[in-house]
Amino acid sequence: MKQPLALAGILAVLADPRTVPDLRRYYLSTDEKAFTGGQFERLGGGGDSSATANEYTADDLIAVELLSVSIPPRRVLDLLQGQLGREVAAQLTEIPVDVELGSDAASPLIADGGPADRAWRMLDHATGLGWVTAGKLLARKRPKLMPVYDGVVSCALGTGSGFWKWLHGILREDDCVVAQQLDARRREADLPAAISRLRILDVAVWMRHRNDHRDAACPSLRLPGSSEDHNDKRRQSKDHRSAMGSR
User: Fold this and answer.
1) Domain limits, the chain
2) What pTM was estimated for this model as a whole?
3) Considering 13, 45, 228, 247, which has the largest number of Cβ atoms within 10 A of its Cβ?
4) Residue 239 has pLDDT above 90, yes or no
């Protein structure tokens, strides 16, 4: 069974020379190979804008689909004008838009039975959604608190259930050094302020692992400096893999 990546491993990924170019490519490319997910936070002014922070709009659902998930039509209607949308909206009203994961104020929000946990369970249990889409829907509305999380990132980090609490703890370690490094990578990549720390970490890890990830027998994340990582960089320099990124 995999063990979650330790603080040192996360810092190694963030310090890797490939991270800033990866972030720039994901968020700032404008050609036909641009990643549609680079517009997730910014589409329509953002899901946490004051006018719509506590309700789902068509812009939110389009933004989530930019991250390569599909929401069934009946769930779309339920989120926009049905009972599911109203129930989740009631939880969102209890979650301030400016609370960041890793802060003291985040702990009761992500705790079992807290408003973020309740909202996620409502979305996860809705027919046709599931945990990945539920997480992305919440990340759109509360990008500072709720991380985007999928199978690639789960595999890379060696995490499973309890991801929010694990990441919350990592962000608090060693005088919040991960948060400091994420801010530094944002400045170096010249990213818009709308890109949260959580998304910078998500994209850095996802970009590093997306080509290697397999549903079965995945080699897991190759940490910078390892022999596997050296071989991987040599292979990439030969074939210049640049698959279009719809995530």
Assistant:
1) 1-31+148-233, 41-147
2) 0.89
3) 13
4) no
